[in-house]
Amino acid sequence: MRFFVSVFLMAFLSFASCLFFPWWSIAVVCFVVSFLIPNQYGKAFLIGFVALFLLWFGLSFWLSFKNNHILAQRISVLILNMNSPFLLVLLTAFIGAVVGGFSSLSGSLLRGKPKN
Amino acid sequence: MRFVFFFITAIVSAAFCYLLDTKVLLKIPLGKLLSPQEGIWQNAEPVDQQYSADLHFGNLTGKTEVYFDARLVPHVFAENENDAYFVQGFLHAKFRLWQMELQTLAAAGRLSEVLGEVAINHDREFRRLGMNYAAENALQEMEKDEQTKSACDAYTAGVNAYMTKLTNSTLSVEYKLLGIKPERWTNFKSALFLKYMSYNLSGFENDFEMTNAKSYFNKNDFDKLFPVHQDSVDPVIPKGTAVIEPKVHPVTPAFADSLYFNFIKDSAINVVESEKPNPNNGSNNWAVSGMKTKSGAPILCNDPHLGLNLPSIWFEMQISVPEFNAYGVSFPGTPGIIIGFNDHCAFGFTNSERDVRDYYEIKFKDNSKREYWFDSSWKKTTLRIERIKIAGKSDLLDTVAYTVFGPVMYDHSFNSKKGLNKNYAVSWTAYEKSNEFKTFYLLDRARNYDDYLEAVNYLNTPGQNCVFACKTGDIAIRAAGDFPAKWNGQGDFIMPGTDSGYMWQGMIPKEETPFQYNPERGFVSSANQLPVDTPYPYYLGRNYPLYRARYLNSQLTAMQNITPQNMMALQTNNHDLYAEMAVPVLLKNIQTEKLNSQEKKYFDKLKYWNFDNDAKSVGAIVFDLTWHNLYDTVYNDNYTHAPKNSAMPSESSFLESLLKDSAYKFVDMVSTPWVETLQEMSTSALKKAVTAMEQLESDGNLEWSKYKDTHIDYLLKFPSFSRFHLPIGGGENSINATTSNHGPSWRMIVSLTEKTEAYGIYPGGQSGNPGSKFYDDAIDNWVSGNYYELWLMKKEEEKDKRIKWKMSFSKS
After folding, report:
1. Alpha helices (H) in B411-473, listed in sequence order
2. CA nearest B663: which of B678, B648, B673?
3. Which of A58, B149, B333, B628 is the most interior residue, by most CB within 10 Å?
4. Each residue of A4-52: pLDDT tens digit?
5. Which chain B residues contact residue A60 at CB under 8 A?
């Protein structure tokens, strides 16, 4: 339960903070949430990773879907050298996930393991 | 221990953020770029995007409504003209800001600031050509005139008003990819854009190439290779029109024969010009009077041929204010409608192709470039220091000396061969003080022939054949512009810069401009050919294309009861008169008995070709390959020892020489002791072409459109933002002058019936955003030769079903 609450909180607060702050504010959010809600270190990493993966995957896929993937086709050829909007969405999600995972982990490390 | 891990992961997280936010690790800031709420995903415009909005700005004085139709063409209805120009600036910026930025950076020689070292040569060349100097002069003149000043001020304020609304996430894709921010717009940038058009349309003289050729060939050969006039020419103003009595009498300098028209060996110029505008930058325009049309009203047509790019150079719109109501295409970067029509008349342009840029050899006292020899004494130059900023590098300083002629573009520090120490100054009409904004300002408001005359008199550079038609029934064409009154041969070659006698001795007075007004033949037309026949008292230079015009005139002469649909067929006509004249030369000379069955097959394709460059034509390929092979074998051996960068004969000189002279001297190879004949040369040209065609056939590319391969490049050349392999016919000498990357950038037909009936299309789309469905949505229709109906909307029609979105602008 705590896992899902953390994932939801991280994703939601990351979304909210990016309405006002630069994209890297997701790192601050994940760090703070993990600091406040104690979890095992491995789990903390996973929470950040999953939260941002889901958020960025969902957002980019939705935007691209409404766009008929016009832009994603052009950009994926430009930076991935292949015409694959889906891969670009995956790459997006992965970047968010890695940043989310590591910052969540460091928040957790600062807080320390939960007792029991 | 925990804290050690904490520090490591904290540093890793921070490093990720930093590296993905900057270009330190990757060429692009990948994290910022792909973050869904800030990066490129924000530019993925929903295909059902709503453009309606309610906007307020302090600069506005009244209410302005903008109605967008289904093609995203804005119909702007403002209470006064300054509000209209403000809104036009806002809309240009909203849909085309990056393009405006890039084009003006290119014009100013500032590309290195965003693209880095790759652009240094471009930047130096444009600075040395004096593009900023030219734009400064234009700006002064534009700001002296109250009307153009307030129009430009309002336009600039509109562009900047859009910019202040931009956030990191609403920036266009390009700014995100390059990691830069837009720069404030200024009137100076609008002036720079017009000078960029001047560069494109009045910058392809061949002075260096011709001088090199002159230094190599003797006079007799030279005159054969580069005849001044062609027999087939059909000038804009028809032959036999009365000769004017000139007011300016240009005098050939004394000793020009020995100092200028000499054919001295080894005086070759070692300058290599790094960039040249496309010599095909031309156009067609014509207007037919009511006596030739079905409706009885004049019809005006125009298709400017320019480099084909995405986003397109044009943005289509309507501007309606109490003073005028104009529709057409505008240049993102300048106020007003450039080619279009209003409630009373229609107007369009083709390029004059006249030589308004000449070079002078300058003798400096020393490398400091502070003094130069002129009229028997040392004169002082003005030094202009150009500071070129380069992304990621320190600035480059470049010193350009200005002489009485203009800037010294080439000197020991730039593009001249090392140790040669030759210097060349440029004289260009684009440096003159002129206010081209006023031309369009007045044309948009023109109600009759006199208004049109006043408007085109403001046009200096680039000189244009301005076509006009009016609901009163008038049609007219005028070769307007600022043209030096030249003596015979002036400016064909580099001129001595030590003698004022070689300077331009004056401009051709505006009242001596060649023109036609309601001619008896019932039409006026131009397709970049020679403006007027030889009895014109001023030298007009060479290198005018002529076949497109001649074919166009033959069609217009024959046509009667014309409808706009007939005009669409004419504008998209693929017939090639050049080929029609050249193919008989090949058919007569190819020795069919020496051909094998495969070669015979292709020979027949040529023989039965209808001279139309249609998309699927095979004959057009056979002709193109064979003819170019023949051209190469005829001339190449004569150029083996010629200086690099020597002028080659024009295609028309080649054809007309072969038609006139069956024993054309250059057909014989210099390197062989025996005499080659045109028969042998033509036969081997075909045989060589067959090898290439067999390859095309096995690749499945034996169709004219696949061979020609028309593409429309994105301005930064990213392939996935461009369009390739367009199945379109046409060619250099067809009215549909579509070549590989060049062609009709806007096709317009306006029938001036009581309720104007107009059609148009350009190969692009209204939005410059590669993530919009309006980015390239007109291309397929353009390829197919289709047109959109142009709707000169009336304010009462605001409830019309064609309106999809509405933007309201008012005072805040």
Report:
1. 436-445, 449-456
2. B678
3. B333
4. 999 999 999 999 999 999 999 999 999 999 999 988 999 999 999 999 9
5. 34, 36, 41
Tell me if B52-114+125-266+277-355+435-485+514-573+742-812 shares its fold with B586-708.
no
B186 SS3 class: coil
Of the candidates B489, B333, B484, the one whose C-alpha atom is nearest the C-alpha of residue B406 is B484
Q: A91 in contact with B at a CB cutoff of 8 Å?
A: yes
Please give the torsion angle defined by the CA atoms of residues B757, B763, B767 and B768, in that order, rounded to the nearest 10 degrees. Answer: -150
Instruction: State the complex-level ipTM.
Output: 0.96
Residues from chain B that touch A15, judged by Cβ atoms under 8 A, are: 37
Would you call A10 an interface residue with chain B, using a CB distance cutoff of 8 Å?
no
Q: Are B603 and B595 in contact (CB under 8 A)?
A: yes
Residue B415 has pLDDT above 80, yes or no: no
| pTM (predicted TM-score) | 0.95
Nearest CA in chain B to A89: B34
Beta-carbon separation of B46 and A99 below 8 A: no
Any bridge partners for residue B484, and if so which?
B507
pLDDT tens digits along B328-378: 999 999 999 999 999 999 999 999 889 999 999 999 998 899 999 999 999
Query: Which residues, other chains included, contact B629 with Cβ-Cβ below 8 Å and sequence gap of 6+?
Result: B684, B685, B686, B688, B689
Nearest CA of chain A to the CA of B45: how many Å?
A: 6
pLDDT interval class at B157 (50, 70, 90): very high
> What is the topology classification, in CATH, of domain B52-114+125-266+277-355+435-485+514-573+742-812?
Glutamine Phosphoribosylpyrophosphate, subunit 1, domain 1 (3.60.20)
